[in-house]
Amino acid sequence: MRFEILALALIVGGCTWAFRFFPTKADLSGIKPDGILARFLASTGPAAIATLFVASALPMLTADVPVPLGLGTAAVLAVFASTRSVVMATLAGSVGYGLAVWLL
């Protein structure tokens, strides 16, 4: 393995760990609910989900018929629009994608 790849993996892994660990240990009781820090912390979850979606969807877009991708995405959007639950939307997307792969 090349040193550059190992160094990059360690840096990204360390930053990811720090980004997930330190907010759980910080005392956030003093921040304003409509302040910039609160808005930043509230947006990290959807931003991470969007990043993972793009990274996983790009290879599927080169396929001839990306039906499972379309059904999974539609399930996520429909459930999130109706429930506003990220957990339920993620599970619905997984089930929709899995069913489409299994049926096709």
What does this structure look like?
With 104 residues, this protein is mostly helical. The chain has one domain (3-103). Helix content is 81%, strand content 0%. It contains 4 helices and no strands. It has helices at residues 3-25, 36-61, 67-83, 86-103. Helix 3 packs antiparallel against helix 4. It is flat. It starts with a helix and ends with a helix.
Poorly predicted runs: none
Helix content: over 70%
Write the element-wise H/E pattern from the N-terminal end onward. HHHH
Give the CA-based shape: flat
Percentage of β-strand residues: under 5%
Largest sheet: none
Global Rg: 18 Å
Give the CA-CA distance, first to last residue: 38 Å
Task: Give the helix/strand class.
Answer: mainly alpha
Please give the number of β-strands: 0
Number of domains: 1
Tally of DSSP helical segments: 4
Mean pLDDT: 86
Transmembrane segments: 36-54, 61-80
Pfam families: AzlD
Keywords: Membrane, Transmembrane, Transmembrane helix
InterPro entries: Brnchd-chn_aa_trnsp_AzlD (IPR008407)
Topology overview:
Layout: H1 3-25, H2 36-61, H3 67-83, H4 86-103
Helix pairs in contact: 3-4
